[in-house]
Amino acid sequence: METLINTLLAVAGLLGLVSLLPPLARKLGLPYTVVLAALGVGIGLLLHLGGGVEREVTGPVTAFINAVGNVELTSAAFLYIFLPVLLFETALGVDVRRMLDDLGPILLLAIVAVLVCTLVAGFAMWWVWGLWHGMPTQKALIICLLLASIIATTDPAAVVSIFRDLGAPRRLTILVEGESLFNDAAAIVLFTLLLGILTSGGDPDLGAAAFDFVFKFIGGVAVGWLLGWLTALVVTPLRNQTLSEITLTVALAYLSFILAEHYLHVSGVVAVVVAGLVMASAGRTRISPESWSGLEQVWSQLGFWANSLIFLFASMLVPPTLMGAKWSHFALLAALILAALGARAAVIFGILPILSWVGASDRISHRYRIVMTWGGLRGAVSLALALAVTEHQSLPDYIQEHVAVVVTGFVLFTLFVQGTTLRPLIRVLKLDRLTPVEQALRNRALGLSLSNVRRDLEDVAERFGLDAAHAIDPLMERGAELAQEQLDLESRYGALSLDDRVYIGLATLARYEEQRYLAYFRDGVISRLSVQTLAAVAGRLQDALKTGGAAAYTKVAAKQLRPGRALRTALWLHRRYGWERPVSARLAERYAMLTALRFCLRELNQFTGDRLAPMLGKQAAEAVRTRLTARLTVVEEALDSIRLQYPAYLDAVQSQYLIRAGLRMEERSTQSLFEEALISREILNDLERDLRERWQEVSTPPKLDLGLATHELIGRVPLFAGLTPERLAQIERLLRPRLYFPGETIVRKGERGDTVYFISSGAVAVHVAGLDAPIRLGSGDFFGEIALVLDQPRNADVTALAYCQLLLLDKRDFNRLYSGDPVLKEHFDSAIQKRLSA
């Protein structure tokens, strides 16, 4: 009982201290982990140095200090209690859709960074080992590589926090977060392999080690993906059951780690990361918005506790660890620091430019790359892996001592040297300063805000009969100061050009666009899947403006309407295997996205006239509205093409949007009545029950029928009109229905023909060389027969002008039909002769 009380006292006391550190870190301008490590080292010194504490302090304080000193944190506790929470919480907060855009660069950067750091730092220490201890052995090399793998994992929290404060491109922030997430996994897998080689005592088999690395990594991905999707399926019926939904995600984090690591012998770290990413993506669409908000808060709290406690307990071991340091340890530490920084610089300055050059990443300035290099802090994961080595009974004491001292010293260097100098470095690089354009925007926005505040204050004073002079005079003085600042700015840098003001307007709209999508989701108007897609695009628009200006903004906006990877995959499955459900679901998602985008663009047009025009001027506002109008025109055209093919479905989607908006307004009105005491709690509960029932009726989006039933499509082709039901049934069995998108190429000139296409609905353009305009074919027409009958390559490109429902007849069946039915043969021959003579 006493042991339990002391443990609870230690944990509760430490959590109490931890709660005071975030505001202290913000006030000091230091990363939170630096302040946390300082507290842990301080407690460790207090415990290590002194028995005098008990004599000077009595009561609960003494009990707390003794309890903290008696807590033993093992590596098993870290791996099985804290690590799943840390990894799952990090993965859950990742914007998966944005990360998938850069998954290749992220994986490349993460795995290469780990391998380069391990090899460069490992061989550097091995060389120093040889200088200090004589001829270095193969075992010494494994020890040095093990040391390097422990510190290969980075903590991105400090850099990401600073990048967000600086307004760095979001793609850069996601690149840093994703790299850290996967290099944690890669580093721990590599550490496990090297530790196994070291403890086995045999000669290392590099081929087997490489295979084991790949097997554990891919196996972890498979386990995490499978469990994540099973959880997403199970959580769907639990919708609006917040406690059950959150509990299920906690179970997922631990089960994915334990099943992968302990039972399947693959990487539990990778499994947890992938499971968290699956829930961050699929779970968002299956868990209610209210529950997801609570889930994020719970996991944020769990992550904060786990990170804080593991860091504190690990930092408390620093003083006794460093007491046994020798000069040889400091030599290895110096080599490790220099080599690790050099390896990180090589990756950041070597690989990132290549990724930018091939278009896999935005161009990143040298100043940001310097911050990424210097900001590679190490934290709890490195300390815990070192702890795992010191607890390994089969390793000699000198190995445990080397690992403990060198890793601890390296972590302290990154925290107390790199961490404390990170913001001063940013000031030296002038990354924290507003550009002249941003300063001008700040002055204009603040001036407009002061003007609005002054007007509102005058209204309030008039309404209540108060003297507003005391409040208005300071506003007028501040306004005069801003005007003078603006004059000084213009005299130094010149007045804002039209391009600058257009840039400011587009940047403002991109941020506002993202806010509107989030507001639509909170109001229940759009689904979480739609808000993820649209908010990700708004984020890409912001990044494009920062890296490429207005031209890049226009390019990204145009790319938004192209079919995405998921839709292209669904179309491939439809054409390959005839599966309609995936493409139907993706098309429904696309239609919902286009409808929400149209709503938002109209709001942005209104916002530009009401809010941006007074701040940027009429000319700049018109230029901005021109770009918005161009975007809106394209969206309207896309929706019109949908309406032509699926009018009933589009009407159902838009009606559902309006019904949802009405229900949300009714919900707010009801809540307002209760807050004004016009209705009782009992009446409010009854009204809310009725609202929930009506929400259920519109919670599922309408289903899209692609209209690809062959027996219906064949009836729209005049060529088959008049055939007997028996003959029609025979032909129907030969035809395959397919759906094509506007602008999609159906047939390419020069390819071998193997199919005839019958247009059941829609229209296509046949691009024939030598003709000024393409030939347009519509419902009832067919194409592709010339290449089959004359046995020659295709002589034209054919593209879809709208959503086209086609019936496909392959070459073998066409030849049978052509040779076995004189009436159809005559029809085909007539069409061929007419087209060749045109």
TrEMBL record:
Sorted UniProt keywords: Cell membrane, Ion transport, Membrane, Sodium, Sodium transport, Transmembrane, Transmembrane helix, Transport
Keyword hit for Transport: yes
Highest classification ranks of the organism: Bacteria, Pseudomonadati, Pseudomonadota, Alphaproteobacteria, Rhodospirillales
Name under which the protein is recorded: Sodium:proton antiporter
Topological relation to the membrane, as annotated: Multi-pass membrane protein
Domain Cyclic nucleotide-binding, chain residue ranges per copy: 719-835
Coiled-coil residues: none
GO annotations of cellular component type: plasma membrane
Subcellular location: Cell membrane
GO biological process terms, semicolon-separated: regulation of intracellular pH; sodium ion import across plasma membrane
Pfam families named in the record: cNMP_binding, Na_H_Exchanger
InterPro entries linked: Cation/H_exchanger_CPA1, Cation/H_exchanger_TM, cNMP-bd_CS, cNMP-bd_dom, cNMP-bd_dom_sf, RmlC-like_jellyroll
Segments passing through the bilayer: 6-25, 32-53, 73-94, 106-128, 140-160, 181-201, 213-235, 242-260, 266-287, 299-318, 330-358, 370-390, 402-426
